[in-house]
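Researcher: We plan to redesign the surface later, but first we want a full-length starting point. C-alpha cells attached.
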C-alpha cells in the first residue's frame, strides 16, 4: 500500500512538472518594425504580413478552436519605443454596448493582453479592448483578490488602439465576419518600481485572451496559454521573444 501511494505521488509530481514546463514554453516571436504600424485596426502594413501568428485555444479545455468562424490569431511587433499587437478575431456576431474607458468590458466581447515585466508574479498590467474600440487598462497587484475600482485607476498614458469591424457592430440579426484590433504600448508605460526601464532587452511575460459571446451560441473564452478558469493565472504566462 505504501509503495502504491509513493508511486501515485511520483506520477502526480511528474505530471505537474511536465504541465509547468509546457506552460513556460509558450513563446511569441515579435518582428522588428523598421516603420511603426499605423494604429487603425487594419492589417495592410508590411510588418503584419511578416509577423508570425499564434492562435488562441479554448481556455477551459486547452483544445484548438476547430470552427474557423470563431478562431482568433495574434501577432506581435516592436521597435525601440513600443510594443505592437494585432488581434484578428473571427466573429459572426460582433457587439459592444460599453462606451466609456474602464467600464467592465469583460462582461461583453473583448480581447485582452496581460503583461508582466518583473519577477513579481502577482503584479502585471491588464489591457482590454472591445469591438467598439473602448479601452480598459489596469494594474493587478493581487490576482486572487482583485479590487477592480482600485486597479482601474491605473492609466497607460501613451497607449493607442484601433479597431476595424468586418460586419455591422451591434446589429444582432445579421451575420458578421471578423474584427481586428491593433495596440501600440510604449515600453516606458510598462516600467514600474521593480523594473525602472523596459525595452527589447527586458524579459517580458504575457498572455492573450478573448471573450466571445455570440447570440444563440455558448459563451466562449479563449487563451494563448490556457488557464482552465480565471484568466488571472500568471504562472502560465508565456514569453515574448524579440527577433
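Model: Full-length starting sequence:
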Amino acid at each position: 500500500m505504501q509503495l502504491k501511494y509513493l508511486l501515485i505521488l511520483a506520477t502526480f509530481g511528474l505530471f505537474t512538472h511536465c504541465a509547468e514546463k509546457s506552460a513556460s514554453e509558450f513563446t511569441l516571436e515579435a518582428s522588428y518594425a523598421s516603420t511603426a504600424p499605423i494604429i487603425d485596426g487594419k492589417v495592410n502594413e508590411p510588418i503584419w504580413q511578416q509577423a508570425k501568428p499564434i492562435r488562441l485555444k479554448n481556455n477551459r479545455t486547452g483544445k484548438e478552436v476547430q470552427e474557423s468562424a470563431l478562431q482568433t490569431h495574434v501577432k506581435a511587433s516592436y521597435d525601440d519605443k513600443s510594443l505592437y499587437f494585432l488581434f484578428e478575431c473571427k466573429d459572426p456576431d460582433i457587439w459592444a454596448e460599453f462606451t466609456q474607458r474602464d467600464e467592465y468590458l469583460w462582461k461583453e466581447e473583448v480581447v485582452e493582453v496581460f503583461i508582466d515585466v518583473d519577477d513579481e508574479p502577482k503584479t502585471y498590467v491588464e489591457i482590454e479592448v472591445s469591438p467598439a474600440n473602448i479601452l480598459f487598462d489596469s494594474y493587478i497587484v493581487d490576482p486572487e483578490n482583485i479590487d477592480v475600482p482600485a486597479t482601474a485607476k491605473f492609466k497607460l498614458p501613451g497607449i493607442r488602439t484601433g479597431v476595424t469591424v468586418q460586419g455591422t457592430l451591434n446589429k444582432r440579426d445579421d451575420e458578421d465576419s471578423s474584427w481586428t484590433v491593433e495596440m501600440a504600448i510604449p515600453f516606458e508605460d510598462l516600467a514600474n518600481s521593480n523594473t525602472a526601464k523596459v525595452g527589447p532587452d527586458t524579459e517580458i511575460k504575457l498572455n492573450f485572451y478573448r471573450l466571445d459571446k455570440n447570440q444563440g451560441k455558448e459563451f466562449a473564452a479563449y487563451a494563448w496559454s490556457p488557464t482552465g478558469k480565471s484568466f488571472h493565472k500568471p504562472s502560465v504566462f508565456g514569453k515574448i521573444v524579440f527577433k
